[in-house]
């Protein structure tokens, strides 16, 4: 018996020892570099040569959407400066700044935030001051950051509660005053983007008592790399995004624009107005107005779509054999019932195709009544209008979108016109139009392509949706012909793109208590082999044809003339 007890104890100790070895191996392999960096921090004074140490958010061509860049800055280790007062005075003279503005930066190791001209760089380096260097610093924000409403912004960890939450959710270490994602992609991918150590730094070494070790001087590493951070590669195209935002700045005070690559469902541009400045001073002003946590990305917000929803009603009626494009209807204008037409004199005898092009409400009210609520609900789902998901963009679902309300009493007529309980996002409307371009196949939109590490290796991919049949291909062909009538003979003529051709649908959605409407246009170009689908929403506009269609045309004209390598897609 004693022998068995000894053997049992031996195996227990062996198992404990094995578990200890496994735990140490996990620490060494999983977080060894992080702990090594923390140990090195205690033995040095380090200046991080990054404005915000975190991964980049990139477009499909690997261009940083925040406009990040490297720029020379003055780097100071005050402990090494021999005559601080004289150096401060001389440096202030070179920078053309008051001494009192420069002096505070000589209190601790840091870099000065002031931009430098090439002449100033040369003058400072000529001085060869010990403890004063000129080094490139990686700045996250350029003068014109793109896709701000989607990318989001950063903010400091400001409370112990926030700190505890971050540390509980992540295997990375956080501390008070760290910069973290507070909205958009910066927030959704905080764990992946956060750095575990600087990608570039300058440091001096100290002994156990914190004294500078003489004779070593500053150690500089501009390509240290960080195995912990990842970089987010989106499907956005910076060239297209820039065009969209420039046009919106001139023409859209409130609203949204989505650009999608046909067939694949990849989103090439997402822009909202109004929008905030993501750089700290701009964000500070935004937050001071009490707007933290408010929804800023209008491209994924719900709106009444108005007549652009007639695409779904028309598709359902054609696919179910209720109407043919050539079928004739009667429009009595302001005298029509149960709903009047926007065109007071009435269209008289009009074909279904022409009623679609002219956005004739009485015709679609009649067709909607014949279809019935359940068919409208079914086809809305076929077109993805019940799916708010975007691959890689985990925006919380808005539960106000409830298609069963179409079947509630007195809602069917208004729903047939894209009013009443019908709600959709600009991204959903763009995916709806892609069904037509795609020969009747629905593809879920995608915003994120992959995550990469510092070595450029793909760590995680976000595959495109394989798609599913929504309507017959023959119905999609009929709808393409009707959408072309909108821009050549109908209410969307201002959306026609000369030299390329275009097709699409207008929408004018009434807003409760306002004289103006939410104006829509969604469409594609060129007519042959479409390259882009663009959806424009202008809040408080006049009509889809007058307000949104010209914005569509200008955006489409500009992006169709971009260089192919700038405007075309990636895998």
Mean pLDDT: 90
Q: Which oligomerization state do the chains in this entry correspond to? A: single chain
Judged by helices, strands and strand pairing, the structural class is alpha+beta
Largest sheet: 5 strands, antiparallel
Radius of gyration, in angstroms, nearest whole number: 30 Å
The fraction of residues assigned to DSSP E strands is 15-25%
Structure in words:
The chain is of the alpha+beta class. Helices cover 36% and strands 18% of the residues. It has 20 helices and 21 strands. The chain has a 5-stranded antiparallel sheet, with helices on both faces. Strands 2-10-16-17 form a 4-stranded mixed sheet, with no helix packed on it. It has a 3-stranded antiparallel sheet with strand order 1-8-9. A hairpin with a 6-residue loop joins strand 11 (255-260) and strand 12. The longest helix has 29 residues, at 2-30. The radius of gyration is 30 Å and the shape is elongated.
